[in-house]
Structure formats: C-alpha cells, structure tokens
Write a structure and sequence with these properties.
The protein has 310 residues and is mainly α. It has helices at residues 2-6, 11-32, 39-65, 74-85, 93-110, 118-133, 143-153, 158-181, 187-191, 200-206, 208-227, 233-256, 268-280, 285-309.
Length: 310
C-alpha cells in the first residue's frame, strides 16, 4: 500500500507531503508549543513555512535530477517523517533557512559530476554555504565539503581551488555593505563566535532521541555503502559527498544544539537519501512494505509520546 503510493513519482505524493507539513507546522506552533504571535511574527512564519515547503521540492529535485534514487518519492517522505520525529526544528527559523541554503549548495556540488561549468558551480556552492552560515555560524564548516568536491572531480586544475576564495570575498563584500547601510557592523563579531558549550556532551547524553538518531543514521549510511559496492564510480562519489555532508551536519548539530536551537534539520536530506537507498535495496515486496509502515508509524509514536509527556 505505502510502496504503491510513494514507490512512484506522482503529483499526489507532493500534495500529501506538502499538505501534511503545512498542517503540522501550525500544529507545532499553536498546539504542541503554543504561544501568541504578533502580525509581523505571523508573516515571518508564513515565509519560513514557504521555505520549508520549497525545500521538499529541492530534496526531490536533487535526488531525481542526479539519479541518486530511483523514480520514487521515498526521499521526501522520509524528509517529512524526520520533521515529525523532531518537531522542535519548526520553531527554529534559522535552522530552516540554514538547511535550505545548504541544500542549494549541495545541489551544485553534486552536479559537478557532469564536469561542466565546474568553476561556476563551485562558486555558487561557496556562496550558498556562506549564506547558510549567516544563520548558523558553525555551518561554515561545510566549506570543507566544497574543497572535497573539488578533490573528487577536478583536483589538478589549480584555479578550482581558488574559486571558493573569490566566493568568500564576494559574499564578504556584499554582507559588509549591507551591514554598513543598516549600521550593524557588530554582526560579524557577535554572530561568528564559534562557541562551545561546556555541557555539550551532557546535553547529547540526556537527549537520547538525538543520540539514537545519530547512531541509526551512521548505521544506515554504512549499510547503504555496503550494498552499493557494485554501483558505478560516479554514483559512489556522489554518495560519498552526501555521507560527508551527513557527517558535517551531525557535527554542526553536536556543536550547536541547545534547549532553544535544533539544527538537526540540516542532516535530514542526507539521512532521507540513505534510508531511501536502504529501502530500494530490499527485494522482497512484503518486507519493504513492513519497513515502510514501521517507518511511518514510529515517528508518530515518538510524537504521541512527546505530547503525553509534555
């Protein structure tokens, strides 16, 4: 039943996912974590919701355009289910914006496999990564992924290694001019602090849900790579980039997570891809259906448990 719906790419799949996320977003804000919002705050919430919903299309586009997954909608399904597991991410506007711009950066890096317009794609990825870092300072470590992508695809051209520097210079000038016009030059010093919380390990130990999620995703990524042993070199490299993005995302989540901040959303794309690949490798239709049903039921059980405890 589930595989019959999401096992193919259909417009109805987007209607289901987007409709659910629309309702769930407001459920989180007005029921799960109720508070009063001013008119300006509601306008911002609608903008954030729009970015979140558009992120679903970006996730599907990256997966389909680059043939990372088969012609199914499992990736966007899992992306939505992760949000159900971690509803608190919907309260963090910066996290949603950061995740969106990192998706745009990853889209450009994965498209490097065509070996066309490499410098332009590297420049774009650098720009999007730096824009993402304006929302989370630690997101700047995704620049590592930019250089890794260069190493994977065209390391011998020295100009490629210099392109990220031009991107850093360009976005630096633009942001500086904006801050100068708005009389907010203290932003850089206040934002890029790269602080480490003293009780960061204790937070993760107490946050069993985050810890379990991290362990499961590492296991899923490992199993996916074991199963992908016979795939072509191009797809393996793409999956390596996604795996590294997952590792970087978990690192940022580890460094940035607090009771008020939930950056785990930046890992949802990579996690959704690895779970999708795992489902695709299951040959028995009955077993695949059971796992899909369990994948849908489990997040809602976690949510119900959270509501009851709250």
């Amino acid at each position: 039943m589930i595989s019959g719906i999401f096992g193919k790419t259909k417009p109805i799949n987007f209607i289901i996912i987007l409709g659910f996320l629309f309702l769930f977003y407001w459920f989180v804000h007005f029921v799960l974590y109720p508070q009063a919002y001013s008119t300006e705050e509601l306008v911002l919430k609608f903008i954030v919701l729009g970015v979140l919903l558009f992120s679903v299309f970006v996730v599907d586009f990256i997966a389909k355009r680059n043939q990372i997954t088969a012609t199914n909608s499992y990736a966007i399904l899992y992306y939505a289910l992760f949000i159900v597991v971690f509803p608190e991410v919907l309260l963090d506007n910066n996290g949603i914006f950061c995740s969106f711009f990192l998706l745009l950066a990853l889209r450009r890096l994965i498209s490097l496999k065509s070996l066309k317009n490499i410098k332009l794609k590297v420049f774009d990825a650098t720009i999007w990564t730096l824009v993402a870092s304006l929302f989370y300072d630690w997101a700047i470590i995704y620049l590592i992924l930019v250089y890794i992508a260069i190493y994977f695809y065209e390391p011998k051209n020295i100009k490629n290694w210099l392109v990220p520097l031009t991107g850093i210079f360009a976005i630096g000038i633009l942001v500086y001019c904006f801050l100068l016009l708005t009389d907010n030059l203290d932003f850089f010093g206040n934002h890029y602090q790269f602080s480490l919380r003293i009780d960061i390990i204790g937070y993760w130990i107490n946050s069993s849900k985050l810890a379990i999620y991290g362990v499961i995703m590492v296991i899923m990524a490992t199993l996916a790579f074991i199963k992908m042993g016979k795939l072509g070199v191009g797809k393996i490299i793409t999956m390596r980039l996604i795996a590294i993005s997952l590792a970087l995302g978990l690192t940022v989540t580890f460094l940035k997570s607090t009771d008020e901040i939930s950056p785990v959303i930046i890992t949802f794309f990579a996690s959704a891809i690895f779970l999708t690949k795992y489902i695709e490798f299951i040959k028995k239709a009955t077993l695949r259906e059971i796992i899909l049903i369990a994948s849908i039921v489990t997040p809602f059980l976690v949510l119900i448990t959270k509501v009851i405890i709250k």
